[in-house]
TrEMBL record:
<keyword id="KW-0489">Methyltransferase</keyword>
<dbReference type="InterPro" id="IPR016009">
    <property type="entry name" value="tRNA_MeTrfase_TRMD/TRM10"/>
</dbReference>
<dbReference type="Pfam" id="PF01746">
    <property type="entry name" value="tRNA_m1G_MT"/>
</dbReference>
<comment type="subunit">
    <text>Homodimer.</text>
</comment>
<keyword id="KW-0949">S-adenosyl-L-methionine</keyword>
<dbReference type="GO" id="GO:0002939">
    <property type="term" value="P:tRNA N1-guanine methylation"/>
</dbReference>
<protein>
    <recommendedName>
        <fullName>tRNA (guanine-N(1)-)-methyltransferase</fullName>
        <ecNumber>2.1.1.228</ecNumber>
    </recommendedName>
</protein>
<dbReference type="InterPro" id="IPR029028">
    <property type="entry name" value="Alpha/beta_knot_MTases"/>
</dbReference>
<comment type="similarity">
    <text>Belongs to the RNA methyltransferase TrmD family.</text>
</comment>
<dbReference type="GO" id="GO:0052906">
    <property type="term" value="F:tRNA (guanine(37)-N1)-methyltransferase activity"/>
</dbReference>
<dbReference type="GO" id="GO:0005829">
    <property type="term" value="C:cytosol"/>
</dbReference>
<keyword id="KW-0819">tRNA processing</keyword>
<feature type="binding site">
    <location>
        <begin position="132"/>
        <end position="137"/>
    </location>
    <ligand>
        <name>S-adenosyl-L-methionine</name>
    </ligand>
</feature>
<comment type="function">
    <text>Specifically methylates guanosine-37 in various tRNAs.</text>
</comment>
<dbReference type="InterPro" id="IPR002649">
    <property type="entry name" value="tRNA_m1G_MeTrfase_TrmD"/>
</dbReference>
<feature type="binding site">
    <location>
        <position position="112"/>
    </location>
    <ligand>
        <name>S-adenosyl-L-methionine</name>
    </ligand>
</feature>
<dbReference type="InterPro" id="IPR029026">
    <property type="entry name" value="tRNA_m1G_MTases_N"/>
</dbReference>
Length: 225
């Protein structure tokens, strides 16, 4: 998998890809992540990439020309499965979306800034618009990191235990059941006996029942869909 991220602040995203699972994925050659400074495609010596909105109003808008030039150049080098714009008015990121994107080969992430991007960029290039929640960030960089993490961890070979990802919350529209490890008893708090029984069929039944209970209590909306 290759992910190209277009941003005016690419340095903001470098650290997450230099540690832990994301670094391992890159080091193994399972994923390539490339950052592109949008100002390199600016149209003037001031490296300008934003301007005032037509019709007036507060804030600035990311200009069409630098974005079109950058995306078009990347597209000329390879075929992309999706060109994704990180924006508060996109569809809310879900595990299903991450699952779908994890089997793609080439993705572009466009990080928005200011009041957003010229609508014509959306019309020309964007194939999917994603939000990580109903709130606004100063830019799309942190959202791009969240999206990348949710996708890359699902790529085969990235996690040491690939079955682990299949039992995450939301994989089956349920939250995860409670989990425990050693010691068996800590300050009078004991691990449920069923988990020590060795009866794996009963353990799975207990886990499913607990997942249903927790989902019903915390996220009943997941059960009503």
């Amino acid at each position: 998998m290759r992910i190209d991220i277009i941003s005016v602040l690419p340095e903001l995203m470098e650290s997450p890809f230099q540690t832990s699972i994301l670094k391992r994925a890159v080091d193994k050659g399972l994923v390539e992540v490339h950052f592109h400074q949008l100002r390199n495609w600016s149209i003037n010596k001031h490296r300008q990439i934003d301007d005032e909105p037509y019709g007036g109003g507060a804030g600035m808008v990311m200009m069409i020309e630098p974005l079109d030039k950058c995306i078009s150049e990347l597209k000329s080098q390879r075929e992309y499965d999706e060109v994704i714009y990180l924006t508060p008015d996109g569809v809310t990121l879900t595990q299903k979306i991450s699952n779908t994107l994890s089997i793609k080969n080439n993705l572009i992430f466009l990080c928005g800034h200011y009041k957003g991007i010229d609508q014509r960029v959306r019309d020309m290039h964007i194939t999917k618009e994603i939000s990580i929640g109903d709130y606004v960030l100063t830019g799309g960089e942190l959202a791009a990191c969240v999206l990348a993490d949710s996708i890359i961890r699902l790529v085969p070979g990235v996690l040491n235990d690939e079955q682990s990802a299949l039992t995450d919350s939301f994989q089956d529209d349920l939250l995860s059941p409670p989990i425990y490890t050693r010691p068996e008893n800590y300050k009078g708090l004991e691990v449920p006996k069923i988990l020590l029984s060795g009866n794996f069929a009963k353990i799975e039944e207990w886990r499913h029942d607990e997942a249903m209970r927790i989902t019903r209590e915390k996220r009943p909306d997941l059960l009503s869909e």
